């Protein structure tokens, strides 16, 4: 229940949740995840309206082949100003990798810090389900669940987690006493469950709900996908002007990998764009063309791995890569023009311009995309590389140093890349001693990182 003084916050969050639902309906899962996270940031305890729908979306995204979080996403935050920031970061990662036990544990930690008990109950039950169905159950996770359930006085669940922990470590006699203690607490507690049968039924209900969501998200068979497209065609006949239906049909039809149908879909999207002048159709067209080209590149690479390089498949791969480069540049240029506040599009366009050595055009885009916290370090790294490739080595040094100040981990891949790029900028700026010192430290951290050992030897000989 939302208190009166929190109504505005809840209303603001619901606006994001509603928009996320709309975006998810046309399978734009990544953007929908971001919208749900923004809503949860405003209303962290929105379990029914925020966390649960986001969980379902995460499973659908996973079934659709959504990628797990990359390095820049995993390490975009390593320290947090408050529990809400920690919670949303953890849940963002969990949404991109919905069976990752570590990310779920991060949510538990943040929920306990923030006192978000309803969230803690939800995520603890969900993680218990995930762990319970694993062949090898992680003991430390089960003990964390025991502590989490105990902290909100859910003693039966705590005892259940403890029993599973006992199965994982049957020789741990202390767990027997812990289980007895938890059962005693449950006995004297006026709790939610009156009997063991009631508790078992509740656990079964929780399991059933999660299983239904898992089944809902599994990859659909080809016959089902064809039927789904046919149903969308029929619905479009009923409401031919529905943008949501048009976009959903276009995406699902393009995924059938029928060349003739693919061309028809592209033509329809073009016609709808001419009819409405709404860029949403052009964006959808760009997305399916890029997806199609990436699939063809994967197939061609697989052919090369299987049958070896030939003049034909090598030329084919080169042609596809060139087409993809042009398609992405055109797509992200249009997205930036039509969605000027979306930092992701600025960053992606900057990367494509940088690949084409158009550094002067890429620099302003990275300068804007760095204002978004999740893109800050990556944008600074790309910005530094633009200055480096222009020969502005002193400016590149300043940018890489700024990125390192804001990046809090000293051992991850991003740290190593930033340090390596800083050393290169120093080396090209003829600040050899400083470059040597950084390369040397990198070699101590990871001797096999890129060509760092070669650079250490080269500069050592030069400085002696």
Q: What is the strand and helix layout of this fold?
A:
Blueprint: H1 7-25, H2 29-42, H3 47-63, H4 71-74, H5 83-96, H6 101-114, H7 117-132, H8 139-151, H9 155-168, H10 174-188, H11 196-217, H12 222-238, H13 243-254, H14 259-276, H15 279-307, H16 311-338, H17 343-355, H18 359-369, H19 376-390, H20 393-406, H21 413-428, H22 432-445, H23 452-463
Helix pairs in contact: 1-2, 2-3, 2-5, 3-11, 5-6, 6-7, 6-8, 7-8, 8-9, 9-10, 12-13, 13-14, 13-15, 14-15, 15-16, 16-17, 17-18, 18-19, 19-20, 19-21, 20-21, 21-22, 22-23
Keywords: Repeat, TPR repeat, Transferase
Organism: Sedimentisphaera salicampi
GO molecular function: transferase activity
Radius of gyration: 26 Å
Order of helices and strands: HHHHHHHHHHHHHHHHHHHHHHH
Helical run tally: 23
Counting helices, strands and paired strands, the structural category is mainly alpha
Q: Could you give the count of β-strands?
A: 0
What does the main sheet amount to? none
CATH topology of the largest domain: Serine Threonine Protein Phosphatase 5, Tetratricopeptide repeat
**Helix content range:** over 70%
Measured by DSSP, the beta-strand proportion falls in: under 5%
CATH class of the largest domain: Mainly Alpha
Low-confidence stretches: 1-5, 190-196, 215-221
